[in-house]
Hints:
Radius of gyration: 25 Å
Shape: elongated
Number of strands: 8
Oligomer: single chain
Helix content: 40-55%
Structural class: alpha+beta
Distance between the termini: 30 Å
Strand content: 15-25%
Largest sheet: 5 strands, mixed
Strand order of the largest sheet: 2-8-7-4-5
Amino acid sequence: MKNQHLSxxxxxxxxxxxxxxxxxxxxxxMKAHIVDCDxxxxxxATVSELIDDHDINIKPKSSLNLFLKIVxxxxxxxxxxxxxxxxxxxxxxxxxxxxxxxxxxxxTKLTKATIEQFDSKENKEIxxxxxxxxxxxxxxxxxxNPNLEKIYHRFQEGAMRSSDIKIRTDSVLKVNKTKNLNLKxxxxxxxxxxxxxxxxxxxxxxxxxxNKQSLPLTxxxxxxxxxxxxxxxxxxxxxxxxxxxxxx
Length: 248
């Protein structure tokens, strides 16, 4: 995967995964390639937008229909044109020169309509570049953190669980950013517990001590992958789970 670009079907599957908030379910090498390859990431972003606009449904392992192949080819062409445009823009944008003949009667200049057309095209290209960058940033927000993944998987194998504190939250909590987000557990003795939440970069974004049986995360609004930990009063780690916050 590192030495070649994604196939048409793989690009379509990644785009569909983004639209359906299931990016994490993709193979690790495919996600890693999207992060490392600007060309494939740009094509995925364009196809994702086109699929969303036309409400196309892609089933895994099914052959791509003709319309989807056209969409992917258009996406690749747009990426190529965007690159050529910026190269051309760097080399050719300069003050217009005026050519004079011996009688100084002939002048070459851009008309108002031509200038307006050029400005419109330039603005469109800039807007497209911004959209592609935003899609790339979104992809990065769902990358797994290797260190936190190790801790998470230890608990999925049953390690280090407390006999008193019982977790009542899904190990991978998937929720829309517009919905209420609550972490839940059983705390029969009202023990003082510490909750920590981390983004996928490993940065701690919340540290809260409670003696209740739930904690609402009202401040978590940016789509992405998060991890949460719960500690007892002796600061023993009792559990580590994941949160996938979608933007739709």
